[in-house]
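Researcher: Re-running this chain for the archive, since the previous output was lost when a drive failed. Same request as before.
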Amino acid sequence: MQPFIDRVVDVDAVARFCLGRFWRQATPVQQQNYVRVFHAVLMNAVLSRVGDYKRNEVRVLIQQPETRDDAVHVPTVVERTGQPPVKVTWVVSGDSGNPRIADVIAEGVSLRLTVRSDYSAFLKSHGDSVDALVEALKQQVCDGCTSPSTSIP
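Model: Regenerated C-alpha cells:
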C-alpha cells in the first residue's frame, strides 16, 4: 500500500506543510527523521480506515473539479451503506506535471490544517522541540509494537 500512497499523495510536501514554521528551524537530520515517521503515521491512518469499508458498499460521486490558486479541488460525495453521505474534497496539486493529492477536506475541514494545528500546539508545549514531536509520532506509530523490528528508526 505504501507505494500506492506515495504515488498518489504528495507526502513529503504535506509533511513539510504540517510542520509549518518549524520546518525551517529543524536541522536536515531532524527533517529527514520527521518525514520518515510522517510517512509511517500517514500509512497507519490509511490502514486503520480500510477496515471501515470491508462490509459496506461504497459509492463515490465525483462532481465538477474547480481550479483554485495552484491546485484543483475535486469535490466528491462518499456514500456508504447505512451511513449518511460525506462531502470530501480532494485537493490535487500538479507540480511538475505529476498531479498528487495535497490535502483532503472532509465536511469543510482540512486534514493538513488540522494536523498542522495539532503539531504546532504539541511543539509549543514541548519547547519547540522537533525531536520531541518525532519521538511522540514514533510512539503513535508503534503503539502495540511488540518487537524492535517493528519500530521506526
